[in-house]
Structures are given as structure tokens and as C-alpha cells.
Amino acid sequence: MASPGDAGDDVAEPWSDGSAVPAPPDPVAAPVEPERALCDRLAARRSRLRLSAPTPTKRDVTAVGRLLARLAADGETDPKRLAGDVIDFALKRDFWLKQVRTGRDLARLFDRIDDDRRVAGLVQAMTPGRMMGLAAPDIDPEVRPAPTPAEPHRHTAACRHVEALLDSSDARRAEPDTFRRRELAAETADRLNHGATDDETKRWIADTLMERAERHRADMERLRELCAANGGSMFAGSKRSSHAATGGELR
Length: 251
Description:
There is one protein chain. The protein is mostly helical. It has eleven helices and no strands. It starts with 33 loop residues before the first helix and ends in a 5-residue tail after the last helix.
């Protein structure tokens, strides 16, 4: 009977006492270090893109290992996952695609690439229609910027607001003539620009128009009296002047 463990045995032979010889244990693959796995990942991804993919060296593995240790010391809960995300992002950007060839490149440029990755995420989140309902981190979607205050309206003699006040029922009652009411347009606009309310301005318009109308009636009455005193002439003293010029006598 062959002794246990003879080379070339395909089937374990029983021991002399009849018990079965235990089969040798299957070889266990040694665990791959995270830094080695990341270097291999970078090389494999570049190879699939038909780009140069240098075989990772010990210096590459050491550089990535130091990177993972730094990320862990900074509080990153899963440094390997983060580094993998950065690799995937870099190989989708033309700029970084040409610069990240080895593990040493990844470790040296990691922070800059990660910044670009985070900025791209913020821009995508804030672009309408790209990610509906998702607000950028640290931005409260309920808070809206205060609107820029509009320039206050500056009233002019021709603006509709002034025209409406000059055409109010009180103004038309005081002065039916549209052109005479329009004579107050500039003053009306100035009062509004200095803070007068519509009601205050309408009262002022009506009072001013009535005062002007009364003054006009008084002027016309005096003119009629002068005309009557001068024999129907509207120029006072014209009759006396005419007689003096001709040497005639006044009667």
C-alpha cells in the first residue's frame, strides 16, 4: 500500500487502519492590498480604453498606500471607495486622462481631481432639468435671493398717471377744457414725485383749476368794463388819443 502523500496520487488512499486520508486543503489566495488593487484598476481601465497602461511598480503601490493612509487620517470612512471614484472620474475627462497613467500620478494629482469631481457634482445639481428636485449641498431650496428693488417710477407731464389725474371727474368739473387742464401736467408730476398721494393731488388740481377759472372770469369782467368805458374799444384811452392826434375835442 502506498504511503499517504505520495506524489502523483489523484485519490487519497486509506490509511492501514482503514481510515480515509484527509485531502490536502485548497490553496488560499493571498488578499490583495487595497493600494495594489487600485493600481491594478487604473491599469486595467486604461488598457480597456486602448491607452498606455504601465505595469504598477512598487513605488506606485507605496504612493497609493500613503494616499489611502492620509485620507483615513483626514476622517474619510472608505478611502478605497473614494480613490476608486476619483479614478473613474479622471478617466472620463480628457484633461486628466492624459495625466493619470500610474499610481504615483494618482497620488500626486488626487486632491485636484477630487476637487474637479465635486465641483462637477455641484454644477450638475444646480442645473435646471438635469437633476429635478435636487438642491446643491449647503443650499436651502426654500431660500430665494431677495429681488433687486426696481427703480421708482419717475412721473412726467406725459405719463398716464398724470393724465388720469388731470382727467378725473373733479378736474373736468372744475375745468372742462382739456388743454387748460393739461397746463397743470408738469406741476402735477412734480407733486407726485415729491410724495403727494393721488387724493391730495386731485384736490390740488381741482382747487387750482377753479381758482384759475375764477381769475379768468374776473379778468374778462374787468376787460368788458374797460371796453364799455372806452366806447366799446378794448384799448383804454384809445379814443382820447385819437382826438388828441387830430386836434379834435373830446365830448
